[in-house]
Amino acid sequence: MRARSRARFPLASVAAARHHALLSFKPPRLGWRPSLRRLCIAAACALGPLHMAPAGAANLADAYADALKNDPVLKAAQAGNEARRQMIPQARASLLPRASLGGNTSKNKRSFPIPPVQDTNPGSPTFGQLVQIPDITYNEHSWQAQVNQPIVNVAAWFDLKSAASTVQAAGAQLKATEQALIVRVARSYLDVLRAQDRLDASRAQETAVQRQLEQVQQRFEVGLVAITDVLEARAAYDNSAVARIQADGDLHVFFEILETVTGTHYDDIARLSESLPIINPEPADEEAWVQTALAGNYNIQAAQAQLEAAKRTLAARRAGHLPTLEGSITHSHFATGGLAFLGDKVDTTTYALSINLPIYQGGFTHARAKEARFLAEQARQELLNQQLTVTRDSRNLFQAVATDVVRVGARQKAIASSESALEATETGYEVGTRNIVDVLLAQQRLYASQFDYADSRYNYVVDLMLLKQVAGSLTSADMEELNQFTDAASPVARGRPSLSP
């Protein structure tokens, strides 16, 4: 489905000419598949080269590359996928020839429990005497080679088809895990940046409140304000110090979370550039995203393959009532050192065709078929649940991204409004029309607006990635393209949390 994108780029620190170029840019009419590549190329053409991260600052591409090498969740999914792939040769073995070779050897002793007999051989030295027949000791050995070939085995054929569907489901689940890793890396990386922005706002507020406290203290000393203003300012300063300490600790925690995902320790990471374009998803059609998600979501594809596997397993279990036909060729060799009617060596070759018709196995076949029928129904319901969930998530995430675009612009305007309100409040305090509480609240609103603006940008990136993940279109290229909008000019340093006020 084709639609024209209406882009909005709230770029606070970009030159006016470039800003106008971005606002006037009209992307070509594209198909349903949205991509950060198109957004990044458009913005890069208008903005020119971006800052390159120094060697010491890790960026999103570094974090994602480290996660690909170290993430245990992805490694486990890859190993599980390889294990599932072995189901096909295992199931195919039931339809292929089977060859076996066996043999044995033995030492035999034959005794004759009869009384002695008279020797009647005139030439024997014991002629005319009673002689005991001696024991006979001899060796025997034999070997056998056999080849069996199933000719008719309907159950084994359906088992092979079921295994193929199970492997297909495992492949889709691996793709879903790979997409989930992209989101986990981006979310944990942006959480670090979010924590740094909160810390910056807390520090700025603490500094401003401290300065305000000093001014109020001076005014109180000369009798211009009451002691209540000093107490209000002191309480605000203490609260801002607590907020700064909490934000400092949170930054360290989110660095640890990023390290858990990537398996790598980072001393600092690059920030997200202000040049990141904030635009509506393409196409701007909610229903198109729903249809795309229903066709491309990997969880749905895995559930569909699981249902197909369950259906074929059911057919295999029902085929347990059908006859099987098998051919075999057997060659055997037997040699003995003792007495044998047919000679001391015998070779035998046998060609056989066997048929087996199961009539009754104590209800085992019927129970297995019944079990498979319920498992197929379970797979059908799980597929329906995945379709309903994906439909809901694609609609909600589409609306979330569209809302994020508007929210970013609105919060950028709120910063300017809060700055003007603070200036007016401070002026009113100087002339006596506003009190210290009004000034402190105005400062708090300003720093809250600054953090909310940064927070909304991070939410936009995460929601857009989640939308593409639900649609099945999120790839590593999206992470690489987003990485072009990282800027390490002022990296976020890990440091150590400060616990002192």
Describe the structure.
The chain has 501 residues and is α+β, with helices and mostly antiparallel strands. The protein has a domain at 51-87 and 161-312 and 377-493: Outer membrane efflux proteins (OEP) (Up-down Bundle). Helices cover 60% and strands 14% of the residues. The chain contains twelve helices and eight strands. The strands form three sheets. The protein has a four-stranded antiparallel sheet, with no helix packed on it. A two-stranded antiparallel sheet has the order 2-3. Strand 6 (324-336) and strand 7 (345-356) form a beta hairpin. Helix 1 runs antiparallel to helix 2 and helix 6 (154-221) runs antiparallel to helix 9 (298-318).
Query: What spatial form do the alpha-carbon principal axes imply?
Result: elongated
Look up the CATH topology of the domain at 51-87 and 161-312 and 377-493: Outer membrane efflux proteins (OEP)
Q: For the largest sheet, list the strands in their spatial order.
A: 1-4-6-7
Q: What is the CATH H-level superfamily of the domain at 51-87 and 161-312 and 377-493?
A: Outer membrane efflux proteins (OEP)
Low-confidence stretches: 1-54
- Assign the structural class, choosing from mainly alpha, mainly beta, alpha/beta, alpha+beta, or little secondary structure: alpha+beta
Q: Separation of termini?
A: 57 Å
Radius of gyration: 40 Å
Outline the fold blueprint.
Blueprint: H1 16-24, H2 36-47, H3 60-70, H4 72-85, H5 87-92, E1 98-110, E2 117-118, E3 130-131, E4 136-152, H6 154-221, H7 227-262, E5 268-272, H8 286-296, H9 298-318, E6 324-336, E7 345-356, H10 364-431, H11 436-471, H12 476-483, E8 486-493
Antiparallel strand pairs: 1-4, 2-3, 4-6, 5-8, 6-7
Helix pairs in contact: 1-2, 3-6, 4-6, 6-7, 6-9, 6-11, 8-10, 9-10, 10-11
